[in-house]
Amino acid sequence: MNKHEMKMTEEMKMTDYVEVTTISTFRIRYMMRKDDLRALNTAVDPTDDELTEWAIQQTRTDTAIDEFSQVWLGEQIVSTRECTEDEMVIAFDRDNDYLKEWTRDAKIRWVRTSLNKNA
Q1: Which of 36, 65, 88, 114 is deepest in the core (most CB within 10 A)?
Q2: d(CA 92, CA 80)
Q3: How far is CA 78 from the centre of its chain?
Q4: Is pLDDT at 112 greater than 70 in this prediction?
Protein backbone atom coordinates (compact mmCIF):
# COMPACT_ATOMS: atom_id res chain seq x y z
CA MET A 1 0.00 0.00 0.00
CA ASN A 2 1.34 3.43 -0.89
CA LYS A 3 1.09 6.46 1.42
CA HIS A 4 -2.02 7.80 -0.31
CA GLU A 5 -3.86 4.47 0.06
CA MET A 6 -2.79 4.22 3.71
CA LYS A 7 -4.04 7.76 4.37
CA MET A 8 -7.36 6.98 2.70
CA THR A 9 -7.68 3.80 4.78
CA GLU A 10 -7.05 5.79 7.95
CA GLU A 11 -9.61 8.40 6.89
CA MET A 12 -12.19 5.68 6.24
CA LYS A 13 -11.67 4.38 9.77
CA MET A 14 -12.49 7.86 11.03
CA THR A 15 -15.87 7.97 9.25
CA ASP A 16 -18.08 7.02 12.13
CA TYR A 17 -21.47 7.99 10.69
CA VAL A 18 -23.64 7.61 7.59
CA GLU A 19 -25.87 10.55 6.69
CA VAL A 20 -29.00 9.81 4.64
CA THR A 21 -30.94 12.80 3.29
CA THR A 22 -34.54 12.25 2.24
CA ILE A 23 -37.58 14.20 1.09
CA SER A 24 -40.87 13.28 2.71
CA THR A 25 -43.83 13.74 0.37
CA PHE A 26 -47.46 14.34 1.27
CA ARG A 27 -50.55 14.70 -0.90
CA ILE A 28 -52.56 17.51 0.69
CA ARG A 29 -56.06 18.39 -0.45
CA TYR A 30 -57.96 21.63 0.23
CA MET A 31 -61.69 22.19 -0.26
CA MET A 32 -63.32 25.60 -0.75
CA ARG A 33 -66.91 26.56 -1.47
CA LYS A 34 -67.28 28.70 -4.61
CA ASP A 35 -69.54 31.19 -2.86
CA ASP A 36 -66.86 31.71 -0.19
CA LEU A 37 -64.31 32.38 -2.93
CA ARG A 38 -66.68 34.84 -4.62
CA ALA A 39 -67.06 36.66 -1.30
CA LEU A 40 -63.32 37.42 -1.36
CA ASN A 41 -63.85 39.86 -4.23
CA THR A 42 -67.44 40.98 -4.76
CA ALA A 43 -66.44 43.57 -7.37
CA VAL A 44 -65.94 40.80 -9.95
CA ASP A 45 -68.22 38.10 -11.33
CA PRO A 46 -65.60 35.36 -11.78
CA THR A 47 -65.77 32.44 -14.17
CA ASP A 48 -65.29 28.88 -12.89
CA ASP A 49 -61.71 28.98 -14.18
CA GLU A 50 -61.06 32.18 -12.26
CA LEU A 51 -62.56 30.66 -9.11
CA THR A 52 -60.21 27.71 -9.52
CA GLU A 53 -57.27 30.12 -9.84
CA TRP A 54 -58.42 31.97 -6.72
CA ALA A 55 -58.60 28.65 -4.85
CA ILE A 56 -55.05 27.83 -5.94
CA GLN A 57 -53.90 31.27 -4.77
CA GLN A 58 -55.48 30.64 -1.35
CA THR A 59 -53.32 27.55 -0.87
CA ARG A 60 -50.16 29.47 -1.81
CA THR A 61 -50.59 32.45 0.49
CA ASP A 62 -50.17 32.78 4.22
CA THR A 63 -53.96 32.83 4.50
CA ALA A 64 -55.21 30.44 7.14
CA ILE A 65 -56.90 27.64 5.23
CA ASP A 66 -57.33 24.23 6.78
CA GLU A 67 -56.39 21.18 4.81
CA PHE A 68 -59.23 18.87 3.80
CA SER A 69 -57.13 15.70 3.88
CA GLN A 70 -53.57 14.46 3.84
CA VAL A 71 -51.89 11.24 2.72
CA TRP A 72 -48.21 10.46 3.24
CA LEU A 73 -46.72 9.22 -0.04
CA GLY A 74 -43.37 8.19 1.36
CA GLU A 75 -39.76 9.25 1.41
CA GLN A 76 -37.34 9.55 -1.46
CA ILE A 77 -33.61 9.25 -0.78
CA VAL A 78 -31.79 12.31 -2.09
CA SER A 79 -28.22 11.56 -1.01
CA THR A 80 -25.97 9.62 1.32
CA ARG A 81 -22.48 10.27 2.63
CA GLU A 82 -20.07 9.04 5.24
CA CYS A 83 -18.83 11.53 7.81
CA THR A 84 -16.70 11.80 10.90
CA GLU A 85 -18.05 12.52 14.35
CA ASP A 86 -16.83 16.12 14.09
CA GLU A 87 -18.68 16.54 10.77
CA MET A 88 -21.81 15.01 12.33
CA VAL A 89 -21.73 17.51 15.20
CA ILE A 90 -21.27 20.40 12.74
CA ALA A 91 -24.27 19.13 10.72
CA PHE A 92 -26.26 18.71 13.94
CA ASP A 93 -25.65 22.34 14.89
CA ARG A 94 -26.38 23.61 11.37
CA ASP A 95 -29.64 21.65 11.01
CA ASN A 96 -30.82 21.99 14.63
CA ASP A 97 -29.70 25.48 15.61
CA TYR A 98 -32.28 25.54 18.40
CA LEU A 99 -30.29 22.72 20.10
CA LYS A 100 -26.84 24.32 19.83
CA GLU A 101 -26.71 24.70 23.61
CA TRP A 102 -26.70 20.91 24.02
CA THR A 103 -23.30 19.56 24.95
CA ARG A 104 -21.30 17.66 22.36
CA ASP A 105 -21.86 14.46 24.39
CA ALA A 106 -25.63 15.01 24.46
CA LYS A 107 -25.69 15.44 20.66
CA ILE A 108 -23.62 12.30 20.13
CA ARG A 109 -25.75 10.32 22.60
CA TRP A 110 -28.96 11.43 20.87
CA VAL A 111 -27.67 10.38 17.44
CA ARG A 112 -26.29 7.07 18.68
CA THR A 113 -29.59 6.13 20.33
CA SER A 114 -31.82 7.29 17.44
CA LEU A 115 -31.39 4.02 15.53
CA ASN A 116 -32.91 1.99 18.38
CA LYS A 117 -35.82 4.31 19.28
CA ASN A 118 -38.35 2.34 17.23
CA ALA A 119 -37.05 -1.08 18.23
Answers
A1: 88
A2: 16
A3: 11
A4: yes
